[in-house]
Amino acid sequence: MKADVTVIGAGIIGAQTAVQLAERGLSVVIVDPGPPGGEQAASFGNAAWLSSHSVTPPSSPGVWKQVPKWLRDPLGPLSVRPGYLPKVLPWLLRYLAAGSTEAKLRQVAGELRTLLKDAPRLHEEVASRAGVPELIDVCSGLMHVYRDRAGYEADGLGWRIRRDLGITCDEVEAEELAQRQPELAKEYRFGVNVPEAGQCLNPGAYCAALVSYAQTMGARRIAARATGFRSEGGKLLAVETTQGEIACDAAVIASGARSAALAKQAGDRVPLESERGYHVTVEGGANLPGPTTSVMVSDRKVVITRLATGIRCAGQVEIASPDAEPDWRRAEIMRTHLGAVFPELDVSEARVWLGLRPSMPDGKPVISRARGIKGVVHCFGHGHVGLVSSARSGKLAAQLVTDEPPEIDLTPFAATRF
Ligand SMILES: Cc1cc2nc3c(=O)[nH]c(=O)nc-3n(C[C@H](O)[C@H](O)[C@H](O)COP(=O)(O)OP(=O)(O)OC[C@H]3O[C@@H](n4cnc5c(N)ncnc54)[C@H](O)[C@@H]3O)c2cc1C
Most CB atoms within 10 A, among 53, 74, 141, 336? Predict the structure, then answer.
């Protein structure tokens, strides 16, 4: 098989990249052993937030002090599989260090903002071109809820940084919160609404629709796993897969949490780990009790989203090998939180899911050319912001492939930064 470009991975990053490349008239092959946006992909089961304000890395100053408490708490948001700790420790220390001072936090936030700015509008545009505008709610706004103002003030630094970047964050007092979220548990008495953010109504279907759209422009799909590259004189000749070679001039590594081995073959060692997350989804229609605007429940560290298919509660950071068996007790934690935050919702029947966030320790993806093989482009490691950032990330990857000037400065996202 032959193509101009092989896109490795049909999660949301690969899907957006394939769309951008196909729209530029290039012949594209998308290789993934699973279906586009299928359950194997983080892009299937995320919380669906198009949160252009999610600019701070997961850690923050002093967060390390809370880690022992979280690890001891059976309902806690963070867990580390003991056997995996020695391997992951260097990554974990870098992860905690990334947000350890205000200056570091501001630096990452400024850089991530360049990637996330206008994200809901970018998604609206691509979804329209793909014929699925109904999957993007560009102006829903997103709401963070707290038990009280003191909880909000404890998160004050993150909100100050967002406001300093020009992001509107509206405080919502108890009475207004009760009006706007009538089914929210009454112990939540303070909120912050971010009007510029939006949400996707069905992330897996969105991803699949983008791949179908790329196919209408001639892109082809192969159900196979990419295993490496064939190159000559440092120039890419082909992507090797479990179904044979794809001869191509360029390749984009967009295989999410599984990208490190391919990146290494292309000349870059990257500290990529998976922050495993879980969801429960109560399936049903618009009449299910739940949030009006999707909510981040700050003390429980979960996001509860109203999707086209039901109410989803997503969260948890479980540090373990990507191949480790799921620990479904962690999904049960999601169920407990969902039932507590929206007591009128019957959570007894819910679908559970585990997904792998592809995470770099500094909370920023890798979007850059590979050092070892000309023609290979990295686009992975989007951690907690892979859905929201995907529309621009796909465009940037396509710009690197076609030698167009990238629309933002890519220095902060270089593979060589580690
Ligand atoms: C619980 C949870 C909640 C989240 N909530 C949000 C949110 O609200 N908003 C947001 O922006 N982000 C969120 N995220 C993060 C987001 O889902 C991810 O960052 C994003 O989906 C990553 O997309 P991806 O395409 O890089 O990886 P994936 O979606 O994982 O796709 C990678 C694909 O590559 C394929 N693949 C792997 N290896 C190979 C290979 N060798 N050859 C070919 N194909 C290969 C896989 O089969 C897979 O289909 C959340 C994540 C989780 C887990």
Answer: 53
Nearest CA to ligand 1 atom 9: 49
Task: Let me know if 253 is exposed, middle or buried by CB neighbors in 10 A (0-12, 13-18, 19+).
Answer: buried
Mutate to test the pocket of ligand 1, among 112, 382, 389 (most ligand atoms within 8 A of CB): 382
Domain carrying residue 294:
2-63+104-417
pLDDT averages per 10-residue partition of the chain, 418 residues: 96 98 98 98 98 92 79 78 90 91 96 98 98 94 97 95 98 97 98 97 98 98 98 98 98 98 98 97 96 96 97 95 94 96 98 98 97 98 98 98 98 97
In a domain? residue 84? no
CATH number of the domain that residue 159 is part of: 3.50.50.60
Q: Is residue 148 part of a domain?
A: yes
The number of distinct structural domains making up the chain is 1
304 lines ligand 1 (CB under 6 A): no
- Per the domain annotation, does 218 fall within a domain? yes
Report whether residue 388 contacts ligand 1, using a CB cutoff of 6 Å: yes
Q: Which two tokens stand for residue 411?
A: 């220095």
What is the whole-number distance in angstroms between the Cα of residue 267 and the centre of ligand 1? 23
Say how many residues make up the chain: 418
Asked if residue 184 belongs to a domain, the reply is yes
Q: Ligand 1, atom 37: nearest CA belongs to which residue?
A: 255
Three-state secondary structure of 189-220: CEEEEECCCEEECCHHHHHHHHHHHHHHCCCE
In short, whether 382's Cβ falls inside 6 Å of ligand 1 is yes
